[in-house]
């Protein structure tokens, strides 16, 4: 009887250990074992309807979950609003707030009709406090009207190859025909973060701006809690509407690598973003593939710049380099370039570096 009891206890212990492994979302072999063998553990689970993770430098999507499905995105719309305004406006220009802008419902900076504020400060109010009044004021100033600015937003989406996106307004309030996918948001965010002014705005914890009607200044505290919760966090935007529910794009930089995570309709987004960013930094470190000045074997050429790419364990060995010469009649040849070093991973192009003659 005692032997049977001991056997039952052992079986119970083994069963509980298996349950713990299953609950962790990892296979029975540990994550470290996966790294040693070149096999990645599965991405961490999340509560989102759609999600994506991207390396900002290369634009490589590291994770996608229902990533191409068009969805309501709430105030994540303002990422596109901001980059279109930065690229098409003068940041020191003064913007006059219209009656339509001042009366816009939803989150607000509480601007007044006729109030004047610089485009720069409006962009801080837009991205830190998610002001819908700021969004309309920016749209009317840059595009002449909300419809005119939405046209500019859609043109920018087309330029960036965002095929599952369409904009009807600059603020993200629910409206038929206004949507983006998680993958498109990741690509847009990576593009926008490469612009120094955008990157500076979205990582700002607190911003003050002159208030012409009061003795005190406006003070906007960034709604993005990731800036305070996650080491290296430096952006980007929160969002919520009754139809979109919780939406979030976050970014962080560690060891010279910047990642951006996207979740749509996620009730536990802060924790899910922490896990997604941790996963990316751990298993897809940014690595030097080609170094500036590196000679190309068998040629008189050398790389004109460094090329870096996020690579999982075992991927670097599968990279192949191919030299494509430049015709002597081409403009590039006149400028000193002698070819292109095309870089492929598993036969798929991931980038290229111009070649020059060795010095």
CATH architecture assignment name of the largest domain:
3-Layer(aba) Sandwich
Question: What kind of sheet is the major sheet?
Answer: 5 strands, antiparallel
Total E-strand runs? 15
CATH fold field value of the largest domain: Beta-lactamase
Strand-helix topology:
Layout: H1 2-24, H2 31-37, E1 48-55, E2 61-65, H3 77-88, E3 94-96, H4 99-102, E4 116-118, H5 119-128, H6 132-143, H7 146-159, H8 182-193, H9 196-202, E5 206-209, E6 218-221, H10 226-229, E7 233-241, E8 245-254, E9 257-266, H11 269-283, E10 286-290, E11 301-303, E12 307-310, E13 319-325, H12 331-334, E14 339-345, E15 348-357
Antiparallel strand pairs: 1-2, 1-9, 3-4, 5-6, 7-8, 8-9, 10-12, 11-15, 13-14, 14-15
Helix pairs in contact: 3-5, 3-6, 5-6, 6-7
Summarize the structure.
With 359 residues, this protein is of the alpha+beta class.
Please, could you describe this protein's structure?
- The chain contains 12 helices and 15 strands.
- By secondary structure, the protein is of the alpha+beta class.
- It has 3 domains: 2-37; 48-283, Beta-lactamase (3-Layer(aba) Sandwich), CATH 3.40.710.10; 287-357, Spermidine Synthase, Chain: A, domain 2 (Roll), CATH 2.30.140.
- The protein has a 5-stranded antiparallel β-sheet, sandwiched between helices. The protein has a 4-stranded antiparallel β-sheet with strand order 11-15-14-13, with no helix packed on it.
């Amino acid at each position: 009887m005692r032997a049977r009891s001991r056997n039952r206890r052992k079986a119970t212990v083994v069963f509980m250990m298996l349950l713990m492994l299953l609950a962790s979302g990892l296979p029975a072999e540990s994550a470290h074992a996966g790294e040693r063998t070149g096999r990645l553990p599965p991405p961490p689970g999340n509560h989102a309807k759609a999600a994506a993770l991207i390396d900002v430098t290369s634009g490589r999507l590291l994770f996608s979950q229902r990533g191409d499905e068009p969805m309501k995105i709430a105030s994540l719309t303002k990422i596109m609003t901001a980059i279109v305004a930065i690229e098409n406006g003068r940041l020191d220009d003064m913007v006059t707030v219209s009656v339509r802008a001042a009366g816009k419902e939803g989150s607000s900076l509480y601007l007044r009709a006729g109030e004047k504020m610089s485009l720069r400060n409006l962009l801080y109010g837009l991205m830190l406090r998610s002001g819908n009044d700021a969004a309309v004021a920016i749209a009317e100033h840059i595009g002449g009207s909300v419809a005119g600015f939405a046209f500019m937003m859609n043109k920018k989406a087309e330029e960036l190859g965002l095929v599952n996106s369409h904009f009807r307004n600059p603020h993200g309030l629910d409206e038929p025909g206004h949507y983006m996918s998680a993958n498109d948001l990741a690509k847009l965010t990576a593009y926008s973060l490469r612009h120094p002014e955008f990157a500076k705005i979205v990582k700002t914890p607190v911003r003050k701006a002159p208030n012409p009607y009061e003795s005190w200044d406006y003070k906007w505290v960034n709604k993005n809690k990731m800036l305070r919760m996650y080491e290296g966090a430096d952006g980007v935007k929160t969002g919520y509407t009754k139809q979109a529910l919780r939406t979030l794009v976050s970014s962080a930089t560690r060891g010279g690598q910047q990642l951006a995570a996207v979740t749509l309709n996620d009730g536990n987004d802060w924790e899910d973003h922490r896990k997604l960013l941790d996963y990316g930094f751990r298993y897809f470190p940014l690595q030097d593939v080609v170094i500036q000045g590196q000679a190309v074997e068998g040629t008189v050429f050398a790389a004109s710049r460094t090329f870096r790419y996020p690579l999982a364990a075992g991927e670097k060995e599968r990279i192949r380099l191919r030299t494509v010469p430049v015709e002597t009649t081409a403009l590039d040849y006149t400028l000193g370039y002698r070819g292109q070093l095309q870089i492929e991973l598993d036969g798929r192009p991931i980038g290229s570096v111009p070649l020059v003659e060795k010095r």
